[in-house]
Structures are given as C-alpha cells and as structure tokens.
Automatic annotation (TrEMBL):
Name by which UniProt lists this protein: HEAT repeat domain-containing protein
Species: Actinacidiphila epipremni
Pfam family, one: HEAT_2
InterPro entries: ARM-like, ARM-type_fold
C-alpha cells in the first residue's frame, strides 16, 4: 500500500492522469482512518492536482485532509488559500476548507475550526480573482451557511464566468431572508441568465425560497417555457410547493419519466407531487396522455 501511495504521488506530480486513474481504481491512496497513514498536506495536494476539479480523486484528497479537523491541517490550508501563487493550489485549499469541521461528529474542536474556516473563506472572497478558486470559495460560503456571507456571495453575481454565477445562485439556497430585496433581486436576475447552468441553479434556489411575493410566482411561471427542461421542472416544482397548479403537467411529466427502478421519494419533484390533490394529478396525467399533444406521454 505504501508503494501504491508513492506511485500515485509520482504520477500526480508528472500529471500522468492515466496512471493515477489506474492506481485509484486499485485502491490507492490508503485510507488514513483504516491504515493510520498520515499523508502530508503537500503530497495530497500534488495528488489532487493531477485531476480536474470535480474528479473523485481530487475529492478523496480534499476529504482526507478535511476529515482531520485539526489546527495543523487548517493552518496549512488557510495559508495556501491566502498566499499560494498558483491558482490550482489555492483552489485545492478552498476545497479542503469549504467543508472543514462541518460534518465532524464528536470532535472537540470541530465547531471552532468550522467557524474559522468560514472566516478564512469570507476574507478571501473579497480579494480572490481566479474564477476557479472563487467558485470553491462561494460554494464554501453557502455550505457554512453564515448569513454574514450573503453580501460577499452577491458581490460575485455578475462575474463573467458562468461557473461562478451558477455557484452564487446555488450558495444562496436557504440564505435569502424574506425582506432581503437585494438578494431576491439578484436571484430573479440569475434565473434569466444566458447560461443554462446558471438558470438551473437559480431556479432550484428560487423554488425553495421561503418568500412568496408575486415577483417570485411570476418568475417561476415564466420558467415553465424555458428551453432547458431542467429549468422548467424547477419552475414547476416551485409552483407546486406553493400549491399553484400552473406547473402541474410539467411536474407530472418529470415524475412519470423517472427511471422505473428509482425510489419515488428521491425524485426532486416528489414533495410538490405529494402536495398535489389527486384530482389535479390525474387531470395532468390525462392531459399528457392526450394524442397529438407535443412533448407529452401520448406522443
């Protein structure tokens, strides 16, 4: 196992992704919790940087560090995020910090370090320019769910990179207070973004919003005609959660199109479908089954 870990690190440093993929599939690197191997931060960072953001190999390295929940690892990640000249190193540090202490159970310092990680992300959000690093920082601000971070999140809503704007929309989930007109206005603008990824994230956040002013209902209804079907479903879901029947056919179509072996309760439309009176559900299903109706179950 030590040999595999060394080979993985070497492959990562040489950006030999094929070899790194093969080693990961074979079980490298060793799990610290099982094998008691404490891999140095820089070595795990080297491994992670062999993979594109979002890859399982990168996540495994970040998770191994985040799971330590100790001052030593926190200090290295915080320093790297603040001072590393390489944007890739800063992004990996943000990946470590974005969940630092959040899911630790029974760890004495977890709450203190979670709060400290949120403070580091908040400070860096004000000065970071690289869009990849910003994406992770904004994600972390949303996950840490500190209302003080909302202005810092909103500051990046007009970033030219769609990944950043999409993350802004996602990070606002559960963070928009009913009386926060700036945050609500930002979200309403993001559901009209030119990039479908941004609209999807904004539509999902808007659907789950606690506030229910006419502008929100109008925006959700407008999403039903969005060319991206995922955006349309989120609009219908938001209407369904507000007992508004305008999205019923979109909701039922999405619910009935789920994989046959899937769990109904796990489908994203389930809560809205569950609230729908049976008469409305059956009427929507009948409308979808009508011959000649474009895009319905009957065609």
């Amino acid at each position: 196992m030590h040999d595999d870990a060394a080979a993985l690190t070497a492959a990562a440093r040489e950006r030999d992704t094929d070899t790194a993929e093969r080693l990961l599939a074979a079980g490298a690197p060793a799990d610290e919790a099982i094998h008691g191997i404490r891999v140095p931060y820089d070595e795990l960072a080297d491994r992670a940087l062999a993979f594109a953001p979002g890859h399982a190999g990168r996540f495994a390295a970040a998770a191994a560090l985040a799971d330590r929940v100790d001052d030593e690892t926190f200090a290295v990640a915080a320093r790297q995020l603040a001072t590393a000249p390489d944007a890739g190193r800063r992004r990996f540090a943000a990946e470590v910090l974005l969940v630092y202490g959040l899911y630790a159970e029974g760890v004495e310092d977890a709450e203190r370090l979670e709060k400290a990680a949120g403070e580091v992300l908040l400070r860096r959000a004000a000065v970071e320019q690289d869009p990849g690093v910003l994406t992770e920082i904004v994600c972390g601000l949303g996950l840490h769910h500190d209302p003080r971070a909302v202005p810092a999140i909103l500051r990046h809503a007009r970033n030219p990179e769609p990944d950043v704007r999409a993350q802004v929309a996602a990070a606002l989930t559960g963070m928009v207070a009913p009386d926060d007109t700036e945050a609500l206005g930002t979200l309403l603008a993001l559901v009209e973004d030119r990039d479908p990824r941004v609209r999807r994230c904004a539509a999902a956040t808007l659907a789950d919003l606690r506030a229910d002013p006419p502008a929100v209902r109008a925006a959700l209804a407008g999403l039903l005609a969005d060319p991206d079907p995922d955006v349309a479903v989120e609009g219908a879901r938001g209407l369904g959660l507000r007992d508004d029947p305008r999205g019923d056919t979109v909701l039922v179509r999405a619910f009935d199109s789920r994989p046959p072996d899937s769990t109904p309760e796990a489908h994203r439309t389930y809560e809205a479908i569950r609230r729908m009176p049976m008469a409305r559900f059956l009427a929507a299903r009948a409308a979808l089954a009508a011959p000649g109706t474009p895009g319905t179950l009957g065609t």
